[in-house]
Design brief:
single chain; 298 residues; alpha/beta; Rossmann fold; 9-stranded mixed beta sheet; 4-stranded mixed beta sheet
Length: 298
């Protein structure tokens, strides 16, 4: 007899039950399974069609892609989830909304269901809700393994912030509703999913003027690279380890790995030799060498 949870989850995918699993037959993903997949990380607001097309292509291509959408960062099914699902289906991607709680994320039925996807997309809202639901669960274990086998993982806004091992929670200390100082311990960090362990990501970067927030976080953790992603802009983390900028605006890179740091009695931070990169669409950053390739000017 089919367990109740599996019956309920199968309702979400009833039109496509019986499709071959990723890596077998017609559903074989385009990315070779012997190497890690790609990350597509969007800074929020509308995801440009070209970025969605890149995501679908990396997840197997039109007619061969099977995408799971996770809306748990939000407290309700909202317009964003419906729009993203509609956009991906227009690209001939077999797309399903997977709204699970923590108990369901631990279930065998959920793990079996998540095995069948070639792409995983995390929607916006509150990244702390995503972390609370999925960290340490069988569901996230499956997604991490599928990524290592070549699947593509992506997200926007909260779904971008949660991609790193140390995640910006959106809180500052103390929280006075003002621009945070660049100071030791001013920004609250928590554990994220860890797909991009060498970085800290901040989203809506230009629109919400988050330079102080990201600078404080990076100078507290200078071994991590700060990534500020503007709205309608994405960073693709490629299997070769390089980061490529997609979309309509900029990605800002704050690299303090070679910086000299001081702190005064108020914990305010001084720093020298910080490297800042302003990367428009088409730029590529090599985090291992700290080198940037910019697109040729018109």
């Amino acid at each position: 007899m089919t367990p109740p949870l599996l019956r309920r989850l199968l309702v979400l995918i009833a039109p496509t039950v019986g499709l071959p699993q990723p890596g077998r037959g017609a559903s074989e993903p385009a990315v070779p399974p012997s190497r890690p997949g790609n990350l597509i990380i969007v800074g929020g607001r509308d995801t440009p069609m070209a970025v969605q097309q890149r995501f679908v292509s990396l997840a197997g291509g039109a007619g061969r892609t099977r995408i799971a959408l996770f809306p748990m960062a939000s407290t309700q099914f909202d317009e964003e989830a419906r729009e993203v699902m509609a956009d991906l289906r227009k690209l001939n991607a077999d797309t399903h909304l997977i709204n699970i709680d923590r108990q369901e994320a631990q279930a065998e039925a959920t793990a079996q269901l998540l095995e069948t996807f070639t792409g995983y997309w995390f929607l916006g809202g509150d990244q702390n809700r995503l972390a609370a639901t999925l960290l340490g669960t069988r569901a996230l274990d499956v997604i991490e393994r599928r990524y290592q086998e070549g699947a593509v993982v992506g997200g926007t806004s909260a779904g971008a912030a949660v991609m790193t091992s140390e995640m910006l929670t959106g809180r500052q200390k103390p929280d006075k509703g003002e621009t945070p100082p660049i100071a030791r311990g001013a920004i609250d960090l928590a554990r994220g999913f860890g797909f991009l362990p060498e970085a800290i990501i901040d989203q809506h970067f230009l629109k919400r003027a988050r330079y102080n927030r990201l600078l404080s976080a990076v100078l507290d953790r200078p071994q991590l690279i700060g990534i500020g992603i503007d709205e309608e802009t994405a960073l693709q983390v490629r299997p070769d380890g390089r980061w490529e900028v997609l979309g309509n605006s900029y990605v800002k890179i704050i690299d303090a790995r070679g910086a000299r740091l001081t702190h005064d009695r108020r914990h305010l931070t001084g720093a020298g030799n910080i490297r800042l990169h302003l990367l428009p669409r088409g730029s590529v950053f090599d985090p291992r060498r700290g080198r940037v390739t910019l697109p040729e000017g018109g």
